[in-house]
Amino acid sequence: MSRAVITGAGAVSAFGVGLEKLFDGLAEGRCAIGPIRNFDASAFPTRVGGEVWPEPISARWLASQLGELPRLKEWEKAGALRDRKCGFALLAAAEAWRSAGCTSSERDAWLSLAVGLEQAFLEDFAAVFRAGKIAWESGSHSQLPAVRLRAPVDLAPRCVRELLDLTGRTMIHVSACAAGALAVAHAASLVEGGRASMVVCGGTDSLLNPLGVGAMSRIGAPSPRNAVDACRPFDRRRDGLVIGEGAAVFIVESEHRARSRGARPLARILGSGSTQDAYRPTAPRPDGSAAARAMRRALERARVDPNDVGYINAHGTGTPLNDPAEARAIRLCFGSSADFVPVSSIKGALGHLMAASGAIEIAGSLLPFARGVLPATANHREPDPECDICVIGEAPLRRRVDVVLSNSFGFGGQNATVVMARPA
Amino acid sequence: MSAAVVAWAVRTALGNATSDFVNRLMAGERAAAPNRALESIPGACKIHAPLMGTPQPSEHRRFLSRLELFALDAAREALGNRRADPNRLGIFWATGGLRIRWAELAPALAEQRLDGQHCWERGLRRLHPFWLLQHLSNNGHALLSVDVQARGEGATFGGANAGAQAIAQAEIALGCGAIDLALVVACDSLISPEALVDGLCREALTTRTLRELAAPYDVAASGAFPGEAAAALLLERVDTASSQPKAVVHAFASADGERGHARPGTLGAAVARVRGGGEGECIVDGCGLARPQWDLAEREALASVIDRGSPLTCISAATGQLGATTALLQVVALAHVLSTGVAYPISGLNAPAKGSLRPLSRAQEVRVGCGYGVASAAPGLLGVVRVVKPSA
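Structure tokens for the assembled complex are given below, as produced in the milestone run.
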């Protein structure tokens, strides 16, 4: 069996473009939540978010980050950049590719990417929708292909493939908030099983558009307080999530391939586990048993004793139901070790990146290996007795750890856990 | 790696029972019907193949689309009375993509303006409270897991080749012992307005009337028509299957970077990759894009890796293009061919175009030990399933 290692990583978050900006923000314990500015959200119930860039994504902005690329104009012309997550995926993939030292010799890499809801374009609906129907007869179709109603689910993966000129297989994960972790876990399992020797993997998402924010507001998931401390994971006063956006992409490859091309691993992926709550569509299983099983399975596959885990990056949405259920799951899996293994959620700082949350949190979980710092839990001030675990508060914790565990729990009860270790 | 198919269920425009589906395929029936809403629109596809009937009443109807409800029905039927350890049963769900519930979106859109200004006041505040839940990509997966108490490893896949992705990942989960039973479920509709817009933009669909419609691989072929379907396969490990398998399947999903359909050459390479040794003559269920140059190139690409005289058939000639569901229905149809020794024809094929492989214009006996289902979709996505007869 080949061991899977991460040799490159790229991140786009409300802290800015680049993994180092994510690390800086987390290591300094900052919170990047602020007013939504890329569209006029002033009348929306939800007006704050973890926004990457306060304007629509353009080829010009991407070029300022990526450097000039011939395809940027083409993607913009084709409307691909209207879906914000496409731009974020491009930035994160380019950084990961570069940081892993990949060249055209690595074009055979596979792609395992998590994407969120296809972005629906309100202005397009306005153009083609009359009295409850697509107004085919009013000549709306003559506006095509400018009017597309939605960005297809495979748009971001396609752009990444084109950017890196990849020739390997493509897997598109759409398991909601667990998708990012599942995409990375899938990549590691392909490498470990010898089916692929390198996989570009991760997640990208943005709901910070009128329909996304409107729909989230209507369902009542975001915190009703439009404040920078709106998301308070594991805090007694928590009252909802904050919508974030961004991407994280990794180069996962076999240790052998990495060694033979001289790439330096950032982390080893030791194991992963996934389970299903099979409980309710709108609430996690309160006893945390299924989530605990995902953690146990990941630890078993990793051959790691729970006592050896030095840090848990929690899903920690800051919603009333998720956090206590996750705390119970951690307690079930770790037993009395849960009294001292440090746990934090970076959603208070960045918001909930939805399909990309698992990926950005795996990126955040590299911080202990890179800088010897465990991320803080922004806005966690009043511990909740219902969340009886060792939560790191608002100050990051300086500590050397060798094994970290990252949880991602999706809507509908899809649970995914990834266990990683400091590179040898 | 491969998996044993021990049960299945389908919901198609040819019928909602597997027997109806295969019998009508064998009879060469075509489910195409006029799409009255688009009859007067120049450049639009005026034919479609909608799924008929209604799904079982379900408490999940407020969250799920009609297609997803059909998929739930198919999944429950495939699982049947099989008793499984909930922790060892995994769901692998394939979805083509977001399909909008237009009726519920209407109040939010009716007064929007092109500049998008004041969009909350102009209607978004009237958005259905469940809009997000209704449009989540893993909705069906989540609710099915509740219904059948599946708590094992699983995932949801997206894109037009998601069915092949889901089967492939289920094979891996079974192979590594994470689960004992995999329920692979797919649903997709290419007749929804947003999918028709995509099809129109890519000029991928026929603009002919039903009367003029020609089959794929016919000299007069001029584009495919859209369909919709749902299906479920129940998979186990080949060496430990609890009952005699109906077939053994191996799936492969990939992409080649094309913005339109995946290239025929990529398909050929994919078939070469999954091809087993000593399998003898095989049958192919083709992509059925019904574009003469592409059809010819597909046949040539496949003939470079399998016998040039292999029989060629195509379920999408009968059902329309099925997106994410294609791979699952190809497994069911090809397994039927392998078990009966009779191949279904390409519905509506009158004058096969010249080229490699042997397009079947009528049902006929075949001596094949293996079947390949291939599919190519935009953007550059492809799926291949290899189906073989199980050993007794």
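The mean pLDDT of chain B is 91. The longest helix of chain B spans residues 326-340. Further analysis is deferred to the final report.
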